[in-house]
Amino acid sequence: MSTLHPSRAAVGGHHTITAAALLATYMQSVNISVPNAALPHIQATLSMANDEVGWVFSSYIAASAVSMSITQWLAARYGRRTIYQTALAIFALGLVLDTLATTSIQFVLARIVQGAASGPFAPLSLAILLEVTPAARHARMSLAWTVCSLLGISTGPAIGGWLAEYYGWPSIFYFSLPMVAFIFPTMRSLLSEKRAERSKPFDFFGLVTFSVGMIGLQMLLDRGERLEWFASTESWVEAGASVLGFYLFIVHVLTTREHFLRTVLFRDRNLILSTVISFALGFVLLPTLALTSPMLEELLNYPVDTTGYMTIPRGMALVGALVLTSLVPAQVDYRPFLLGGMALVVYANWLMLGYSPAMDWRPVVEAGFLQGAGLGMLLPTLARAAFGTLDTKLRPEGSALISLSRLYGSTIGIAVVQLFFYANTQAMHIALAKHLTPLRVAANTVGSIGKPGLAALNGMVTRQAATIAVIDQFEILMFAMLVVMPLVFFLRRPRPSG
Description:
- The chain has a two-stranded antiparallel ribbon with strand order 1-2.
- Helices cover 73% and strands 1% of the residues.
- It has 20 helices and two strands.
- The two termini are 30 Å apart.
């Protein structure tokens, strides 16, 4: 790497550039979940169908995952400061486009722009933080970077709910503009430009085929129910694109030497098992939020700001458990902590199976707190498991693989729970409504039932069916973690380290 001018960060801006990099990490993650509690307002304004809600999250995450994969190549070729500033400018454009959207399609496209621009923030911010920090403090700085990322996801619903309730839902995106206004000039004035003398060729074919496979699968899961699956030409096209994309990617991996994720990574057992577990962790992390907020707002009639506040204990437990687990000495076997974290997540999801329309806020807060504690234990322990046996030269690529698996786990998880939620709601509505025969209704009512009464009765049935369907999705999330628990016993013991 060649430096175009001396690092001005080292002269006097160390603390400022550290704050900017951490703030960018927070901004990237908070925008994943900030629309969560505000969804009723967004749906009402944009006439967004229920089965389109998942795209509010998955479009941002999927676009971020794709751009994150190519960040290091872009930074090496065009310069990290150039890429960072370009990403910030496009991200600000995406924020403005979010607020200007008048249809659900426009809003999703704006979220794609915003997500694609956010992809470089996390990897470049971490690289900058490690560069301006002495080697002895790298572990502490990496922990701070992780905490900022999780704080963003955890505080997003509370911030979004409060802003949407009192200032309108566009304000949840204006919230990030002052952060962009601070980060952009800071990076421009303090960050030294670096690019490689000779940038390595990037495996665009591998990235494109893998992305086509994932996006085709995502769209099939998101839109299949509405289009009656393979009765629609679109579903066939999406399924065909997914199969072709994954087929070409597998053939490409087996027949070429260099890939955007090197094959040598897949020879490390701990890394592969940790990647699978990380996928399951992502499958639980965001889909729980995607289910809980609509349940509280639409079925239990909580205001959107209160819904956001009820996610705070989960976030506090997640960050607190992560920090405490990170303090465990490296010589201690990490596998009991993995099992403990998984057990907490499973138990929390089991408690969610007891949700009912008659409950108050306490069961939601209790289950969320326990799930957050379990996820907080898993995140640092998974990193130790993944990198404990991996060559240090491969750690940047291994970290990218773990991050991608968690991101794609979240997008697929959101698609799966949304799919089964609406399918189960319809099935339960039919099952409950078939018992409402004229004789049964007449036996419990006085006088005849008019259209308003029938509409109210149908609303009650729909409400009960949706409640049962939501609870069923928490069961899916519970089993997703149960399935990967046995993998812990196949992890190698950590190497002794100095």
